[in-house]
Amino acid sequence: MLMNLPEILKNQKARARKFKPVKMSKRTELWYRQQLKQFVKMMTNDVERALQQPQGSFFMDDAKGFQAISAKALMKVLEKYEKSDRTSQAENIANGFVSRGDAQNHAEVSTNLKNQTGIDLSAYLRNSPNITEKVNALTAGNIQLIKSIRSQYLDKVQNAVMQAMVRGSLNKDLAAQIKDLGKTTEKRAMFIARDQSSKLNAALTQARHEEVGIKKYMWSASLDERVRESHAEKDGQIFEYANPPADTDHPGHDFNCRCVQIPVLDNNEQIVKNSPIVSQQEKQQMRSEWSDDFPDTIIDRKLGDATSHPLYENAKKGSIEDAYQLAKDLVTDDAVNKLKQLVGNKNAILIPVHAEEAVGQNMIPVAIATVLSKKLHIPVDLSIVQATKVSRTGGDGWHRLVYSPAFDGIVPKDKYAIILDDTQTQGGTLASLKGYIIKEKLLHLML
Q1: How many helices (H) and strands (E) does the chain have?
Q2: What is the dihedral of CA 208, 191, 232, 227, to 10 degrees?
Q3: pLDDT for 213-224, tens place per residue?
Q4: Average pLDDT over residues 188-212
Q5: Cα–Cα distance for residue pair 371/331, rounded to 1 Å
Q6: pLDDT tens, 214-263?
Q7: Entry's InterPro entries?
Q8: Do 381 and 409 form a contact (C-beta atoms < 8 A)?
């Protein structure tokens, strides 16, 4: 370490520096998820096709039992596939993931430090050999994880083939088992994307803090209903990087941990401890002021009209077809006409509340936006996603106030936005989405 930021700031007047938590990049995680999903799909398709070749219609054979000769032929195919080198593919994915996460982390940490200390450390942190070493280690670790997805899948398929031979299973049963292994492998890949995104952000934040001499941090938990008790109780507490909590390690290190660290300078520690504003301001979901001329919400139908519809449950769980049919049944001409008057000739887009795959599957808002898009000739924009799961359906007022959703994504500039959801109880979700858009300086309307 060549720099000691706390020492440099020692002669400055002590004040509460409101450092922001450096959160993991949702866009980086989504990119990693998509890459791993494609990786698994290509692998499972290749294996299933390869297993069909020695026996012709192997997966179509319902009548015959599993023969030993089939097992030998299938094992040869698997062994040949296992020996094929996929290292470059794993390296490309891992490099892409880490480089994206590193760029976002570097920008946020540097900006955060500059805003609160007045010192631009961007170039110093970019050229640090220690951070480069950490980036290389994280890349190597993810290469091994991606390779393990493939090796573990092939091991399980080989085991399934041998067990089928021992039991004399029907070919159709083995085929179904192999397809199930593919689904399980995809779920593991999605877990890796989520887990490694948090770990990458946590490790790089720590490396950059330590590089400039920051030895302590304040634990910042997400404080939604998914946070573990052992993590929530640490919120606001100060820890040393050299002495991590024994039960959880540092924020982001535990599996699927979404907690983050806020830097603490030695000469600022007591002020931080006595100033709840520093952490609590960051806990509040993004909201914005309501101007007097802001358009009223257009509420189409009563709250129970959607929930009582026979297609509602399937649409809420992710059925695209049922969600679209539900939207066509519920969107009224009256609401469409009101929107036409509201929009006029403005350059508008439709932004529905929708979540990342890991957060939720409710397809109704997207389906409503699609129906409105066809009627209003306005494009749908899905670049903003709900980044936290709050599960407030049926919750009381206090529950909805405490658990407000957060959003992430790129906001299109110089357009008017019609934001919409499938239901509105107290308006918390739309208020959070509106606040996120306002923060990004996008003009907007509201449905």
Answers
A1: 17, 8
A2: 140
A3: 888 998 988 766
A4: 92
A5: 8
A6: 889 989 887 666 778 888 888 888 999 999 998 889 998 888 888 888 88
A7: Phage_head_morphogenesis_dom (IPR006528), PRibTrfase_dom (IPR000836)
A8: no
